[in-house]
Amino acid sequence: MPVRIDPWGAAVPKDYVRLMREFGIEPFEGLLAQIPEPHYLMRRRVIFGHRDFGRVLGAMLKMEKFAVMTGLMPSGRMHVGHKLVIDQLAWYQRRGADIYLCVADLEAYSARGVSFEESKKLAAEEYLANYQALGLDIGRCHVYFQSRSDAVRHLAFILSKKVNFSEMSAIYGFAGESNISHIFYPMIDVADILHPQLEEFGGPRPTVVPVGVDQDPHLRLARDVAARFQRGFGFVLPSSTYHRLLPGLTGEKMSSSKPETAIFLTDSTDEIKKKIKDAFTGGRPTAAEQRKHGGAPDKCRVYELYVYQLMPDDKKLLDLREACKSGAIICGDCKLRAIELMAEFLKVHQAKRERAEAKAKKLVEKVY
After folding, report:
1. Which CATH superfamily is domain 16-245 in?
2. H helices within the chain, ranges in order?
3. What is the pTM of this model?
4. Which of 66, 67, 126, 345 could form a disulfide with 206 if both were Cys (CB 3.0 to 4.6 A apart)?
């Protein structure tokens, strides 16, 4: 049975190898040796796949112009799963990338029913303030709102001329009850991805979109459309990288709409303690069995927090993994350590976020 990827769904893809094979995604591992000081998410295979990233890497190594495009849908509070993309953006920015940040308020309205005024507020107070606090210089980014970008909306209309409903249905599985805004929105997303290559934004150049694999339908459509309009616009087919989705603490996808699955960037120490203590682990039923037989870190949601967030040092992470598998550490002790590290990170981050909020609000007022 074919794998179906839904950019608006909540499932965590379980078979990444099958997804790569079925959708033509190349392994990222083969490029690692060429990347100077790769991000730890790259080293740990959290970023596991790509399409045409070699083109972007070539521009980076030659110090030529390249762009990074991403979007934020202001539909709820940010959690540590969202941080994966911001970490990557900050890494690219330090290497000279031209960063485009789209506030996807049209998507938030279409898919979540979020008003445009609420999107504006969330973009400033929740998202951009956190982005700045996480190390991305938002003042050096091209920040825009979909609903306010004439260039994006106009390009979406032009590009839609060569996309038919059958193709959209095959990619997204639209049925008869789908509303028209939901059906048309992917063309807005394609225009977001391609518009940095318009002449008024710097012209055709390598562009990479770092995404979770659930967003791949948008990238496949964007690449197909770019190829159809190369004669008119000279588009370079957009590149993409794919990272594993951070599983929720309960096992499903980490989601803003399900607080028990996520650690939010605004969580208190007490909330962190409760969530991590209740998290699903790969431990044995008793401490005695754990010490005798060891645990299963690959099944453990707490260990995932160490991989994605809490332990950037690879040696320390491997030591923790071996301690779990050998039974040298039991789940209770591991959780206490995770609580301490997460609480310390969020304490520092929340102080930075408070200082960043004024800058984020000022930027939103400027671009809205």
Report:
1. HUPs (3.40.50.620)
2. 16-23, 40-43, 53-61, 83-94, 105-107, 116-122, 129-133, 150-159, 165-172, 180-194, 216-228, 230-233, 269-277, 287-293, 301-305, 314-326, 331-367
3. 0.92
4. 66
CB 246 within 8 A of CB 80: yes
The CA distance from 268 to 57, in Å, is 39
Residue 224 sits at the vertex; the CA angle it makes with 27 and 157, to the nearest 5 degrees, is 135
CB 292 within 8 A of CB 327: yes
pLDDT digits (tens, 9 = 90+) for 316-344: 999 999 999 999 999 999 999 999 999 99
Q: What pLDDT, on the 0 to 100 scale, is given for residue 252?
A: 77
Handedness of CA 253, 259, 264, 268 (dihedral sign): negative
Domains 16-245 and 259-353 in one fold: no
Q: Which helix (H) or strand (E) holds 243?
A: strand 239-243
Tokens 């791949």 -> residue: 216
**Would you state the structure tokens that stand for residue 263, as one six-digit string?**
């650690």
Phi first, then psi: give them for residue 207, nearest 5 degrees.
-135, 135
pLDDT of amino acid 148:
96
Judge: domain 259-353, CATH 1.20.1250.20.
Answer: no
Q: What is the identity of the amino acid at 131?
A: Y
> What value, to the nearest 5°, has the Cα angle with vertex 248 and ends 246 and 250?
150
Amino acid, res. 91: W
Residue 223 · residue 32 · CB < 8 Å = no
Q: Looking at the chain, how many residues does it have?
A: 368
Q: Domain locations in the chain?
A: 16-245, 259-353
Tokens standing for 98? Answer: 């031209």
Residue found by looking up tokens 């990238």 in the block = 219
